[in-house]
Amino acid sequence: MSRDHLPSAERSADSVEAPFLELLARGATADAYEQPVLLARAEGLPDGRVAALEQAKLLALRVRTEIEGRRRREAELSALFETAHDLAGLRDLDAVLRAIVQRARSLLGTDIAYLSLNDAVRGDTYMRVTEGSVAARFQQLRLGMGEGLGGLVAQTARPYVTDDYFKDERFQHTRTIDAGVQDEGLVAILGVPLMIGPQVIGVLFAADRRARVFDREQIAVLGSFAALAAAAIDTANALTDTRSALDRLGRANEIIRDRSAVIERASDVHDRLAELVLRGGGVHDVAAAVSEVLDGTVEFTEPGGTSPKAVEAARADGHAVRHGDDWVAAVAAGGELLGALVLRGHPGLDPVDQRTLERAAMVTSLLLLARRSASEAEQRVRGELLDDLLDTRDRDPGLLRERAARLHADLDGPHVVLAARLDVVAADAGQEAGARRRLWSAASHLAATRHGLAATRDGGTVLLLPLGPGDTATTLARRTAKELGTAVQEAVTVGASAPLDRLATHPEAVAAAYTEGQRCLEALRLLGRAGDGAAAEDFGFLGLLLAGDRDISGFVGRTIGGVVAYDERRGTDLLRTLDAYFASGMSPARTKDALHVHVNTVAQRLERVGRLLGDDWQSPARILEIQLALRLHRLSSHGPR
């Protein structure tokens, strides 16, 4: 059927709708839909035709509105989908929040969009993201809780909108907020809450610099973006918490590994120190073991060997203390300071290594105490054996040798008895007793290191020391006086006996030798030689004059004993020859006349005397002693003549 044959009503309707369909197809503006109606009126078309065009216009505008609404919803859904996609792949929270604000501004067609977050620490709200803002003061706003439009949104957890901010009295205006809004030139503002569960964490805003009414759809769209923003923040917080938890777990694992290594190292230290104690190691063995564990140099120092202040601080605190680049741990037992362990050049010391050094100091103190106890026990045993020899309580040679062997002493070798005494005037009895204890301790140590014996007697100390190769009683006495004096820091005088042999079979000789050493000690003190050492042989007949108890037989034996023994063994007349020689003015010719022998016989006898008494027997000092000894021998053997 042709168009011409259509009913007139249909043709009229078709011609009325056509211009509006063309406008819909072109997507023309709403103003353009007035043109067909105006044109019909201008052409003077019938009123029915104009009314039909008016009706078609309204229908077309409704269709146009529906199409635009669909397009807008499609754009909104697309923006929401993209935002959700961004949220699903969240890597950077700031980037996601910026995208949300940008899309909200674009969809709502506002001049500016921005997002604020609550700061629980400072108790206020701050701008987190802005889009379209040009005022620096506005971008840096911090708002008190409950202030401005955002404060109202946060309090009620509901969206709020104002078409003219400065005329709206529903919320609290402040100078700071108003100044920032005025700088930005904002008039109409829409705010919706950012919520995680029931809690408002911030506000998402859309605003224009002119008066504007936001419809429900726009409020709903901004609310949807706010929900996505809140989800993004919640997800980011969860990720942050997860990362923090992972970091804490990582640190915990590191700590566990470190603690495991520390426990293993502490166990190693414990095992090493226990092994040292069990096998009788010394303090320097402990220092060497700890040096290896701490990867440094650890030294044991005697009291006063390192900084007294640092040692005293460590002792008072009960822990190792830092001293410059070193660490110092006091070695103490009760109230007595025994020394210190010093870790050299190791300023960075963690608490575990510090405890290792402190534990080593404690083990060192135990070793020192054990060594002291053992030393004191050995000193007592040595003193008891020497006491028995001096008092001749034990005369069994086998038992004496066995007791001496346990102390690493040999009573069958040559020995010297030494009497030692301090020459110091103490301020009180306590100081004097302390000095005597130090002398006894030093003498005991000397006896132990020299394989001898020591005991206390008569307010002093007596020692029985072996005579080494090349030593004489005199050199041994002087060396002993020097060593004891150095050890106690006081003058120590030492008198020595003549050498003794085979003490196990002749223990009674020890008491006589001690008496001789005491006389020698007294002679030294009377001669003003305190702090020196000498033997009886050094004094000759002066020893007789100075000694309180005259030892005539001892003097005769030391001076001419060799000649007396030779005459007794061989039946010779060396003593009579010596008497005649001195009586004849030491002239061999006159001596041969007195003895009625040939001069060669006199010469031979005097040569034998020289071999027995020594090459210096005719020196003035020796001549005096020999003549006195001859006189005393004659008197003691035959009585005065």
Strand order of the largest sheet: 3-2-1-6-5-4
Kindly name the structural category: alpha+beta
- C-alpha end-to-end distance: 197 Å
The total count of helices amounts to 21
Largest sheet, described in full? 6 strands, antiparallel
Mean pLDDT: 80
Q: For the CA atoms, what is the radius of gyration? A: 60 Å
Helical amount among residues, as a percent range? Answer: 55-70%
Oligomerization state: single chain
| Strand residues, percent | 5-15%
Net shape: rod-shaped
Query: Could you tell me the number of beta strands?
Result: 15
Regions with pLDDT < 50 over 5+ consecutive residues?
1-13
Identify the notable features of this structure and list them briefly.
5-stranded mixed sheet, 641 residues, alpha+beta, 21 helices, 15 strands
Structure description:
The structure is a single chain. The chain is of the alpha+beta class. 59% of the residues lie in helices and 15% in strands. The chain has 21 helices and 15 strands. The chain has helices spanning 8-26, 35-43, 47-88, 93-108, 136-139, 148-156, 175-184, 216-278, 283-294, 308-317, 351-391, 397-406, 429-449, 473-488, 508-526, 542-546, 552-570, 574-583, 588-595, 599-613, 620-638; strands at 112-119, 124-131, 142-144, 160-162, 188-196, 199-208, 297-301, 321-323, 326-333, 336-344, 415-422, 453-457, 460-466, 492-496, 533-535. A six-stranded antiparallel beta sheet has the order 3-2-1-6-5-4, sandwiched between helices. It has a five-stranded mixed beta sheet with strand order 12-13-11-14-15. A four-stranded antiparallel beta sheet has the order 7-10-9-8. The longest helix has 63 residues, at 216-278. It is rod-shaped. The termini are far apart. Residues 1-13 have low confidence and may be disordered.
